[in-house]
Amino acid sequence: MLVGNYNSLLVFFSLIVAILASYTALDMAARVTTTRGRTSRWWLAGGACAMGFGIWSMHFVGMLAFSLPIPLGFDPFITLLSLVIAIASSAFALWIVCQEHLPWARLATSALLMGAGVSGMHYTGMAAMRMAPPIRYEPTLFVLSILIAVLASGTALHLAFHLRQHSSRVRAWRAGAAVIMGFAIVGMHYTGMAAAEFPQGSVCGAAQGSLSTGWLALVIILSTLAVMGIALLTSLMDFRMETRTTLLATSLQEANRELRYLTLHDALTKLPNRTLLEDRLAQAIQVGERERTRFALLLLDLDGFKSINDAYGHQVGDQLLVEITQRLESTVRAHDMVARMGSDEFVVLADIPKAQDAAAIADKLLAALHLPFHVEGHALHVSASIGIALYPENGRQPNDLFTNAGAAVQHAKALGRNTCCFFEWSMNTNAHEQLRLVQDLHQALERQELVLYYQPKVSVPDGAVIGVEALVRWQHPEQGLIPPDRFIPVAESTGLIIPLGNWVLDEACRQMAQWLREGRERWTMAVNLSTLQFSHASLVHAVETTLARHALPPHHLTLEITESTAMRDVTASLRILRQLHHMGVKISIDDFGTGYSSLLYLKRLPADELKIDRGFVRDLAHDADDAAIVSAIVALGRTLNLGIVAEGVETPEQKEFLTRLGCHMLQGYLLGRPVPAHELRA
Fold first, then answer.
1. Which pTM was predicted?
2. Looking at CB atoms within 10 Å, which of 373, 466, 641, 664 has the fewest?
3. Does domain 436-681 have CATH number 3.20.20.450?
4. Into which CATH architecture does domain 274-424 fall?
């Protein structure tokens, strides 16, 4: 037998090529698995070529490392056939690996088929030498080489299947697996070579005109490294591009989710907004029609929020809304929906079997809002007017339910606020009238339809006129003279009270300045301030600029605020009143005795006079309790050195009693009705 030898350097390179081919195979398996459609098929074809060429290169370099004491060569067509077998086996392996599952039965069958392919490649390559007589193989080593091929194929498939995902840790495992697979492939090759026996006198039929073994090995090694490098570089670049695309897609999905959330939720409170509420309401109506169920739409309009927002700023107002939201959500049931409709409007959508259940929910909400809110060191109080519309009694369409709940809210406000009302069909007429009144009031300010009436205030006991109170009236072009109790609540609920109040202040100061020029030196002008106007941030500046505009001395202007307004937020009230008092403006506490003021706070208020509410004066001659209250107020005013004004004086008995008690000024129909300025002068 001819004895063969091996080139150690080429044997080493064959091992390197085997390891590199194994790593490429594992990387290609991951690329095929993570792609879909036509891209996956392209990666399967490219990966099969790169992997097959790598395995074949290892085999061929190993063949070139072998030498006999006779010239050797390789038939190009048979060698090309061995390359085709290697590529086909690689394609089969990658296809198996990219399957979703790899049970043990399929793994064993695939290992047999792939092992046969690798063995076929090897022994086809051996046949490319065209030895005569033919190569003989030692049976034991021949069978062992095939067994090694099958085991190596099974191991490679198992490792490739479980190392398909990309990560830093998987890459380290993949490198270690490539080393194991490389040694297995090399072991199969050289076991097969060891099984080959070449008889004495053998001749290589493919040896004529063959290239130098060293140069051929160098070309194949460099070609293999180039192919493997290109394949791995392409895989890496594609993986990075895929990663960036995935990150971009993920970011886009998150942005879309965030955009959708912002589209359907209020940015401040995170509650569902009107868009989402209308969608849920439409769904509730569909369920109600299908299953004959009922639900309630509760519309909450906060009372007093605008004044807090104006007095303390939007930061405090926003934080207050957040705390109101938390309190509402903790009050309703888990399956009820709370949504925000506007700046100070909320909606609760609740399933109810009976109308009484909606009333119970409304009562809980009112009770929850009644407790004070502590925001940035302020104890803030708000209430709510709640309108309730029931499905299907009060409407079967979303717009109808919203409209009817709104009408019920306006009715609740008219009843005094901090209450709830169920919708009744008669409210629609009132709601339309109210809406028209709001629109007309906007135009009344522009068309100068508002006029001031003046009611005289007389001193006691001489009965001389020492001042007037300005009372606004609306000269409507169609409805005639509208009293303030009809349009002032509308102005307060819509915010029009601010421009309306500024107009009253300006016109009253203009008229007072004119009367001063006519010689009314003792007169003062009293102007009422609403709660919203008193809490507005621009009040002090408006008063100051108005006095300067008409050159009116401040002590001729008296600003009247109700006792409840002054006591709503004592700290803020003290700050505003002290600024006005420092300016020289007089302060009158109106409707005194009807609120809940503390004498301690009253002593601190920079007030100049107390105004006894007409409710105590009306039954003064017949009600001992009212007489006692009025006596106490007069005594308190004297103690605090405050002027006492009694309004609503309509009978001589009332006048006589109040004069005897020691009131300083009286005001009422007995002494003079409210009239325009020219009639008062007459």
1. 0.47
2. 641
3. yes
4. 2-Layer Sandwich (3.30)
